């Protein structure tokens, strides 16, 4: 048993790139679900169009890096409009079905052979992060204490990533304190009452969908920048589901809930996965093969999610009165 | 055509396999990865008096993950294919293809309808939009596979066993899980989110036991096709359509005529009123869950029979089921049926114009457009949507 590797990967997971990517996705979901009560099950689609927006502008169209970021953000905003117009007038289940279907449409289009010249088929696109790492102020080397530490590239990504995460938290904090945020929470509690007060519920919901999608889209950027590539199958239903697990784990409608949730989620996910893999590799669990560790890890997330919702829907920091799951 | 040699290579020319067709003229090549392949028929190995239609002996089919791709080499008597006749073939082949695709669409649509009926009944009686319904479909197929391959039982009894087991699992699921949640007063939105967790749990458990590869049942794999009018298909597809229709009719009649069916419709309309008029709501819901699980399993077996088995098959068809249900009107059993048929036929026929890999995209786009213009679906009522 290689406990040191398990320990270091687990500690790295607490502040690593997965936590940044999923933390951002979860902050977006928190705006949708936690504050406004919208069930957006297509968060992965926002991240996918962002990642692909950046990748395709830089690699296929040879545009500069910052234009690529703008293209990604614009794509997310357009997606929010397309999703929102047909569904935000309808009941919650319709938004859920449409967003999950839209995420699948986006994934199928990105991976299709038909559009291979643009999106690169199931291999995706790579080689668009050179400009990002060219801005790296850290000299080459390793930064850290003892066995824990990152190379200069990861340090740069994590520095930018956590700055963006904290900025997003600040934005959420300020917005939700503002009158605008109070309207969102009121929509979550009782849409009709808000409408009776003369507010345009549809417009508020659309703004919320767009804001959350754009924050989630930064998660898509960081995914692409860290891995140096985007593949269509990464942005599947599981990604959205992880973001929901993180939001509910940390506590919905809390500013830092998604961030803390992402840390705890990835620490547990990496720790359980690596421990199981080590146990299996050393023959302690004879009925399992190493390939089976993957599915069992995902199955455990599903189980944990069910238990969390049944036993403690408010998560760690949440307030039970602020959960939109008993509405209508 | 017996003994014709067929060479399969990748798009770049890397050889994959060489096969010789059997007595029925059928052949089968398993490929590792999806992608474009080049299939060449060796003209020297076919009889002297025949030639490939139009002189084309090379095809480049695109194989997608988990799906079979069919390559047919029509043969004409040599010398018979003149210029005018070829034009006629081109004409009829479009309509022939359309008829063929419609037939396949009906098969797919009926499979979707089986899934949609269960989903719709459960939604109607409990208000739960069950995102784990696709996994019930996979589960049925995988259980049948386990009986069929693991215990070497012929597919028909294996399928019956699978449907029975899946019905029992549906009962158990309501008895020990969803029913308990309802008793706790969990809201429908909470249950819907929980159902996604259930879907992830089941899907990965299935992958744990079944693996990530694509499989097929041991029976009815290599059936010689029969031709009815413009349609040519293996007899299993005709049987599948027959069985699916029969089950749908029986369930429909049961809903209309039997006491339980009437009770189920009463519960869908108004659970409180149904309870106060002496209907045991919990019992009705449990029956619906049992039936829903069983017919979902049948859909899974049929899907595995007409395509192949994979742990994501249910997840993939779930969105089509949702499209069918939404098109027909959420919560209406007969709407679900019509909607599913439309979706199935639409998907298959659309491959005349769109690449086959994008056929589901069209169906899902239709789902969104339906919500834009007629959110209550074909048979739905306005009040349900607001």
What does this structure look like?
- The complex is a heterodimer of chains A (328) and B (386).
- With 328 residues, chain A is mainly α.
- Chain A contains 14 helices and four strands.
- Chain A has helices at 3-15, 17-36, 43-59, 65-87, 92-111, 116-119, 130-134, 152-177, 179-189, 191-196, 201-227, 237-250, 257-281, 293-311; strands spanning 125-126, 142-145, 148-151, 229-230.
- In chain A, the strands form two sheets. In chain A, strands 1-4 form a two-stranded antiparallel ribbon. A two-stranded antiparallel sheet of chain A has the order 2-3.
- In chain A, helix 2 crosses helix 13 (257-281) and helix 9 packs across helix 11 (201-227).
- The longest helix of chain A has 27 residues, at 201-227.
- Chain A is globular and about 65 Å long.
- In chain A, 50% of the residues are buried.
- The mean pLDDT of chain A is 88.
- In chain B, 43% of the residues are buried.
- Chain B folds into two domains: 5-81; 96-384, Orthogonal Bundle (ABC transporter involved in vitamin B12 uptake, BtuC).
- In chain B, the strands form three sheets. In chain B, strands 1, 2, 3, 5 and 6 form a five-stranded antiparallel beta sheet that branches.
- Chain B has 386 residues and is of the alpha+beta class.
- The longest helix of chain B is centred in the first third of the chain and has 44 residues, at 83-126.
- The chains are: A mainly alpha (328), B alpha+beta (386).
- Chains A and B meet through helix 4, helix 5, helix 12 and helix 14 of A and helix 4, helix 9 and helix 11 of B.
Instruction: Encode the helix/strand succession of chain A as letters.
Output: HHHHHHEHEEHHHHEHHH
Straight-line distance between termini of chain A: 51 Å
Which structural category do the helix and sheet elements of chain B fall into?
alpha+beta
Total of domains of chain A:
1
């Amino acid at each position: 048993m290689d406990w040191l590797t398990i320990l270091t990967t687990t500690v790295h997971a607490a502040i690593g790139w997965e936590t940044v990517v999923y933390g951002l996705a979860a902050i977006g979901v928190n705006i949708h679900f936690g504050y406004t009560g919208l069930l957006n099950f297509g968060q992965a689609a926002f991240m996918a169009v962002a990642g692909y927006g950046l990748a395709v502008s830089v690699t296929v169209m040879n545009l500069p890096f910052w234009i690529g970021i703008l293209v990604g953000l614009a794509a997310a905003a357009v997606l929010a409009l397309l999703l929102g117009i047909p569904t935000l007038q309808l009941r919650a289940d319709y938004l859920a079905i449409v967003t999950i279907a839209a995420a699948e449409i986006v994934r199928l289009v990105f991976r299709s052979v038909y559009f291979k010249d643009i999106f690169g088929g199931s291999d995706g696109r790579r080689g668009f992060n050179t400009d990002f790492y060219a801005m790296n102020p850290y000299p080459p080397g390793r930064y850290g204490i003892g066995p824990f530490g990152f190379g200069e590239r990861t340090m740069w990504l994590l520095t930018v990533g956590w700055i963006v995460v904290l900025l997003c938290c600040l934005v959420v904090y300020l917005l939700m304190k503002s009158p605008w945020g109070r309207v969102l929470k009121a929509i979550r509690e009782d849409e009709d009452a808000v409408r009776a007060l003369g507010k345009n519920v549809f417009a508020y919901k659309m703004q919320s969908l767009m804001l959350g999608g754009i924050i989630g889209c930064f998660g898509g950027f960081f995914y692409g920048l860290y891995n140096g590539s985007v593949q269509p199958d990464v942005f599947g239903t599981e990604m959205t589901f992880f973001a929901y697990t993180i939001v509910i784990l940390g506590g919905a409608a809390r500013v830092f809930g998604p961030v803390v949730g992402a840390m705890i989620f990835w620490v547990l996910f990496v720790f359980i996965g690596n421990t199981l893999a080590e146990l299996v590799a050393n023959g302690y669990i004879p009925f399992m093969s190493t390939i089976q560790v993957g599915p069992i890890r995902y199955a455990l997330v599903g189980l944990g999610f069910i238990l969390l919702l049944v036993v403690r829907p408010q998560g760690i920091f949440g307030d039970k009165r602020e959960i939109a799951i008993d509405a209508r | 055509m017996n003994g014709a040699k067929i060479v399969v290579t990748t798009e770049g020319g890397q050889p994959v396999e060489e096969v010789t067709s059997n007595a029925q003229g059928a052949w089968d090549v398993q490929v590792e990865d999806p992608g474009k392949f080049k299939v060449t028929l060796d003209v020297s190995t076919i009889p002297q008096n025949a030639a490939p239609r139009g002189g084309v002996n090379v095809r480049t089919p695109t194989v997608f993950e988990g799906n079979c791709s069919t390559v047919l080499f029509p043969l004409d008597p040599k010398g018979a294919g003149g210029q005018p006749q070829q034009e006629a073939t081109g004409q009829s082949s479009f309509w022939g293809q359309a008829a063929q695709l419609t037939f396949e669409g009906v098969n797919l649509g009926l499979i979707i309808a089986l899934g949609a009926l269960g989903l719709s009944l459960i939604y109607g009686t409990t208000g739960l939009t069950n995102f784990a319904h696709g996994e019930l479909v996979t589960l049925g197929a995988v259980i049948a596979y386990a009986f069929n391959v693991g215990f070497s039982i012929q597919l028909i009894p294996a399928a019956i066993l699978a449907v029975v087991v899946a019905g029992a699992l549906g009962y158990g699921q309501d008895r020990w899980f969803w029913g308990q949640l309802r008793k706790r007063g969990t809201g429908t939105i909470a249950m819907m989110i929980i159902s996604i967790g259930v879907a992830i749990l089941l899907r990965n458990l299935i992958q744990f036991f079944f693996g990530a590869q694509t499989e097929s049942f041991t029976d009815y794999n290599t059936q010689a096709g029969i031709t009815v009018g413009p349609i040519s298909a293996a007899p299993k597809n005709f049987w599948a359509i027959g069985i699916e229709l029969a089950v749908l009719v029986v369930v429909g009649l049961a809903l209309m005529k039997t006491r339980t069916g009437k009770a189920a419709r009463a519960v869908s309309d108004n659970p409180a009123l149904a309870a106060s008029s002496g209907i045991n709501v919990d019992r009705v819901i449990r029956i619906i869950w049992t039936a829903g699980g069983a017919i979902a399993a049948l859909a899974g077996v049929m899907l595995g029979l007409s395509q192949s088995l994979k742990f994501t098959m249910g997840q993939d068809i779930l969105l089509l089921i949702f499209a069918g249900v939404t098109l027909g009107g959420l919560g209406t059993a007969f709407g679900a049926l019509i909607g599913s048929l439309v979706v199935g036929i639409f998907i298959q026929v659309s491959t005349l114009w769109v690449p086959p890999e994008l056929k589901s995209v069209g169906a899902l786009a239709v789902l969104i457009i339906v919500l834009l213009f007629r959110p209550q679906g074909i048979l739905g009522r306005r009040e349900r949507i607001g």
